[in-house]
Amino acid sequence: MIKTCIFDLDGVLVDTAKYHYLAWRRLASGLGFDFSEHHNEALKGVSRMASLDILLGVGGMRGRFSQAEKEELAARKNGWYVEYISRMAPDEILPGVVRFLDDVRRAGIKIALGSASRNAPLILARTGLSSFFDAIVDGSMISAAKPDPQVFLMGAELTGAEPAACVVFEDAEAGIEAAARAGMRSVGVGTSPTLARATIRIDGFEGFEVAKMKELL
Ligand code: BG6
Ligand code: MG
Question: Which of 3, 58, 178, 205 has the most crowded Cβ, counting Cβ within 10 A?
């Protein structure tokens, strides 16, 4: 029985990973080092401050900055990121997503957002996705980041579903682990080998249907 589908946002419903990358790379460049797309993989699903620590590690700068300086660096990155996502439009929703969300709704299954991002409400507003959700849990509502299960457990509670009746859609390893810790099944979205621990994996939402999900899970 599936009562709620919980969706991560960045990299699952929209391709905002590219904007996160552009903003982090701009920060690294200002600090005098290169930050590659390969390095950026390690930041997916990771909270803002933890991402900064990983980035500073790549530049050999971990331990160089005080907490206040780190907050300032993260705020600078976020300012650029917000500039990029403020220009987003509905055509940046990933292929097949709107059709699948409609299919989930028609099947009588609740829809929740489980995102680590504090910018989730802006992205949902810019892309017109807000109206699909029965519950929204974003980075401003949680105290522990993925792989802690808090974000998904809150989504389950807000939609009145037991964890065992929830399915999480995730593109990041930390999110797949959070789902497992919450006692939920997961669908890994994308082609990354880091999704091996998901219950099932799909390349994307094109051609994916609720009937198929029920059959595979
Ligand atoms: C996650 C992203 O969804 O949100 C991470 O995958 C990001 O890359 C995290 O660091 C926090 O996002 P924000 O928008 O609050 O900095
Ligand atoms: Mg993600």
Answer: 178
